[in-house]
């Protein structure tokens, strides 16, 4: 009787130990957000919206204002740094710095020192992501499509 009780106790305690170990491993695993990393701009097109229809496609420059590849660094700590863009107020070539956060449902909020907060919904495909944005100014509405690839 004592042997049966001892064997049953050992079997039950081994179940608890293995379950406890699995739980520990799951809590230690950290999954990085797919947007984190160093990205290079590989495609950038714009279209003016005319009477509700897309106008001709313009292929935009893939370089920053100093002629270098346009790089976007999105960091795990919630900060980002983009390639240099000409500051329209000063005419200088400046990095765009700011913060980002995943707000759920595949949407990301970006805030910066030189632009207002905006929300993007990237489409991840393999080692790249695509963005589609629409902006309106005095010239009309413009649709932009940008692709970034992991560097």
TrEMBL record:
**Which PROSITE patterns does this one have?**
PROKAR_LIPOPROTEIN
Key words of the record: Signal
| Domain of life per record | Bacteria
Q: Which residues form the signal peptide?
A: 1-21
According to UniProt, the name of this protein is Lipocalin-like domain-containing protein
Q: What organism is this sequence from?
A: Cellulophaga fucicola
